[in-house]
Write a structure and sequence with these properties.
alpha+beta; six-stranded mixed β-sheet; four-stranded antiparallel β-sheet; 9 helices; 10 strands; about 15% strand; globular
Length: about 280
């Protein structure tokens, strides 16, 4: 068994979806028709490519925790030739703040809460619990790698991992965020009692909901619906729940493979169940 394959199986056993990297830190096309990118797809981009494979075989979309797929004959050549291993952070419920130089590291130490740190060739990866939309160049030397993106596996790192802070989420506010569509959560006629005595009450509730979705290992559809139901039950009647909060929950669900349509359906069904 090659070292990259051994690493990949170990990651998968811990719920981290891996994928093989060829030289240049570029993913393989993981089916025979796409070997060496023969189909013309762009495996290093967010799109799985224009090929007609029966399953996604490019980039982050090919990452999986299924050992049968990882050990399959389809992937065998890729693992033999792999120059490294990458993983899909969003699929593991994680966000990587990729700091590419000393200045970026200094900024992070002054601005972000401490968390697990993985040394890289030129800088550091700071890992947080929670998924979000990925974005490149959010500031000089800083990329966000989470949903629909891959990151190189460079080891487990050191330090305790903390929950994804709002300071990191705020880095992509000015960037276009594809995916979740805005949906206004209506306030019931006459209003409702507001239990958000401090801003941290709502913030904690949203963070816990994101974590619940991100940690789902099975029955993702049901987990998303139950989580939406719980959030709306606790926070949806007083008008404090905003489109931005809902977008965060949608992003967490999409990082687990849910479609935008399913997110909207689950949200609507939860509102209906609560009479909202």
């Amino acid at each position: 068994m090659s070292a990259p394959l051994h690493t990949a199986l170990s990651l998968a056993s811990h719920g981290v979806p891996p994928l093989p990297l060829r030289k240049g830190k570029i993913p393989f096309g993981n089916c025979p028709a796409c070997t060496q990118n023969a189909c013309g797809g762009r495996p290093n981009m967010k799109s799985p490519g224009p090929c007609t494979c029966p399953r996604p075989c490019h980039g982050w979309a090919a990452a999986t925790t299924d050992p049968d797929v990882i050990n399959s004959t389809t992937w065998a050549r890729a693992w033999r030739e792999a120059a490294g291993v990458a993983y899909h952070p969003g699929g593991a419920g994680l966000t990587v703040v990729d700091l590419d130089n000393a200045e970026a590291i200094a900024w992070a130490r002054e601005t972000l809460p401490p968390t697990r740190i993985v040394p890289t060739t030129r800088g550091e990866h700071w890992l947080y619990q929670g998924a979000m939309q990925s974005a490149n160049a959010v500031r000089s030397g800083v990329d966000i790698k989470s949903s629909m993106q891959y990151a190189r596996w460079l080891g487990p790192g050191t330090g305790a991992m903390t929950v994804l802070p709002d300071a990191v989420r705020a880095l992509i506010v000015k960037a276009p965020v594809p995916g979740p569509r805005a949906v206004t959560v209506p306030v019931p006629v006459g209003g409702g009692e507001c239990r958000h005595r401090t801003p941290t009450y709502l913030a904690r509730g949203i963070a816990m909901a994101e974590q619940r979705i991100s940690e789902a290992s099975s029955a993702v559809h049901a987990t998303v619906y139950r989580t939406f139901l719980a959030v709306l039950s606790a926070h949806g009647r007083c008008g404090c729940l905003t489109d931005a909060h809902m977008a965060r929950l949608f992003a967490a669900a999409q990082a687990k493979g849910e479609t935008v349509r399913h997110c909207h359906d689950a949200w609507t069904n939860a509102r209906t169940a609560l009479g909202m």
